[in-house]
Amino acid sequence: MEFTLTHIERVVALLDELKETYRQLLYQYNAVVAGNPNRLADNIADLVQIQGNTIKLGFTLPAEWKFVENDTRPHWPPPQAIEDWVRLKPVQKYSLPNGKEPTDKQVAFLIGRKIATVGTEGKHLLEEAIIRTDFFNRMMRIIQNEMAEHANKEITQILMTL
User: Fold this and answer.
1) Which of 42, 81, 39, 91 is nearest to 63 (CA)?
2) How far apart are CA 125 and CA 119, in angstroms?
3) Cα–Cα distance between 62 and 45 in angstroms, integer?
4) Reduced to 3 states, what is the DSSP secondary structure of residue 9?
5) 9-28 pLDDT, tens digit each
6) What is the Cα–Cα distance from 73 to 62, expressed in whole angstroms?
7) 79-88 vs 104-118: helix axis angle to the nearest 10?
8) Exposed/middle/buried for 65, CB within 10 Å: 0-12, 13-18, 19+?
């Protein structure tokens, strides 16, 4: 027995809900990317592909999402990217011993040194969105309902031939 999703709109609606929840979390946690504060939140594209008996669901996101989402090992980040980030974000600057405020370049260096020492902590917001929407359980219910509906049709056809 071959099974095909007949109500793909249910899957698309659930995926849209997950995407919107993820978008809201990105805004809520102010997960910005240098140069465009809404780059991640506003550039989430759907990926729904059905090929034969396979369905692929997901998002396509700008490459920077992995640095916001996941932890990183210690590394020296690109100095210009950190300096741009310092200009965009409200970074609290402390006075230097001489009473002057540090430059964006100095603050960027300190942040870069910290990342080079300990890495970065990811936000894990996609995981949070999956939990909040109960995505996996709801997807399983959609598939179970579709399978039950399909099986009922198959059984009805068999019984009609008797």
Assistant:
1) 39
2) 18
3) 10
4) helix
5) 888 899 889 988 988 888 78
6) 20
7) 120
8) buried
CA distance 123 to 26: 9
Q: Write the single-letter amino acid at 56.
A: K
Q: Reduced to 3 states, what is the DSSP secondary structure of residue 56? A: strand
pLDDT exceeds 80 at position 116:
yes
Q: What percent of the chain has pLDDT over 90?
A: 21
Which pTM value belongs to this model?
0.68
Nearest to 83 by CA among 106, 99, 67, 64: 106
Residues 6+ apart with CB under 8 A from 66: none
In terms of phi and psi (left: phi > 0; alpha: psi -120 to 50; beta: otherwise), the region of 48 is beta
* Strand 45-51 relative to strand 54-60, pairing: antiparallel
The predicted pLDDT at position 34 comes to 47
Strand partners for 59: 46
